Amino acid sequence: MLGSKHKPMALWLRLYAGAFFGFLYLPIAVLVVLSFNESSVIGFPLRGLTLNWYHEVFNDSKFFIALLKSFGVGLVASLIATALALMTALGLRKRFGGQQWVVPIMLVPIIIPGIVSGALLLVFFGIVGVPYGLWTGALVAHVTWVLPFAFLTLYPRLAAFDQALEEAAMDLGAYPWVVFQRIVFPLIRPAVIATVLFSFTLSFDEFVRTLFVIGAERTTPVYLWVLIVEQTAPFLPAAGVIIMLISVTVAALGFWISAKSSPTSKRST
Amino acid sequence: MGNTPQAARAGRWLVAPAMVWLALFALAPLVFLVTVSFWTASMFGLSSSFSLQSYAALAGDPIYIRVLGNTLKIAIITTALSLLASYPIALFLASLKGQRKTLFVILLFLPFWTSYVVRTFVWMPILGRSGLINATLMSLGVIDRPIDGLVFNEGAVYVGLVYVYTLYMTLPIYLALDKLDPALIEAASDLGASTWQTFKRIVLPLTLPAVWSGCTMVFLLCCGAFVTPRLLGGPSSQMFGNIISSQFLDAGNWPLGAALSVVLMVVVLLSLYLASRRFGLQRLFMGQH
Description:
The complex is a heterodimer of chains A (269) and B (289). Chain A has 269 residues and is mainly alpha-helical. Helices cover 74% and strands 0% of the residues of chain A. Chain A has one domain: MetI-like fold (Orthogonal Bundle). Chain A has eleven helices and no strands. Chain A is globular. By secondary structure, chain B is mainly α. Helices cover 75% and strands 2% of the residues of chain B. Chain B has a two-stranded antiparallel sheet with strand order 1-2. Chain B is globular. Chains A and B meet through α1, α3, α4, α5 and α6 of A and α1, α3, α4, α5 and α6 of B.
């Protein structure tokens, strides 16, 4: 959008972009470097190269269990949230009374600050009498948190979807479920898969809400938090790098599927 | 196909599961929270008789007001810093084309798809006593002993908050800039407008809703911040999220914690109301849709 007449500005912008991306990536570079640093103090100066911290992380059974729990709850939460979001997005293409309330209600979990969401569910489960834990409080917290984002990812795709195909099939006498299964779903499948992957990373990294309702169990971010606050684990940078790699891999997969499947634009995320 | 009674029924059934889920796990708990804020806590547990005790405690102790004021100040400054940092980078991204654009957009996104606990923690070995900055300055001979004042203060909280939340500002502005018709800018410059005039008169007004939406998001996220001030802030830079969590997780005083949460929710809803009066709630979150 900036034409050739604006060259001096473009140069200035490029310099600034260098600084900005430096700010984004320097901390990550520091984390990676420190994860190989042969020193039990997390910091500088660098002492020498070691794989010891990765060795320790992989041998830490608590980390492994936390990782399994994060994977489990992430998978279930992202599937539930994507299913709910997909149904909502499909439903919104019909006309019905009270429709205008659906999107605002959908956005409620984004509007409530994370700390309040945690408190809400802590009080709610406490009073209702459901024990805190991974598959109670944490799962509910994760689905509720991820749902609006899954919806915001899917809704534009479905709103832009050409309804003529469906109408043709309906006119030919196909049942709505058959139309969905045979026509709509194959066309939106990549978007749905991308949504599951994005939802998974959101759930995998969720921390504040989980902290309030998970009881004595630990997801990976909660376990890391405990280690950070107690300041006892020199392998923290290595654990951080592993967690970043997992989220980045899943998110990159989501971007890739999403970009490959998007017929209209490259800019959709 | 969208207008028949059958279609209306199908539509209702399709949105019902998500609506029931949110009614059960977002709206009902909100009602519970407000209710509990009028209860009282004692050594013997919760008493559910109506009481204004928690709100009285809140109003009576200046520390809560001070922390609330401080939280709003930090949220506003962080929002302003994010805007300053984000607008030029959005311009930069929008000026790119083809594969380079895709590459830089992905580069912008990737860090934000990773754990914010890790992304906050990482500032400790940068700003801390044996951190990168101290180590660099010492090896350059600028200082001969480490500076302690780089972390555990309000400045570090700003750095951490901008670092974890600035994407929420960059993204809407970039999307708005990317949608601008290049012909508008060409027309302006053909008519003799300077770069600055074009920006001020055309680009900025057209991206203002996106700026507003980004500001609202970052402001709201900062109001609920907990991890960043806890890890990078000092005792005087703790935020409202920290005193809420300590009521629930340390002191076990649910009514006071609930009352504090209600206050935070009121602040959030009030700012949302003010923000949406101008551009509408839906547009605030979903851009042009």
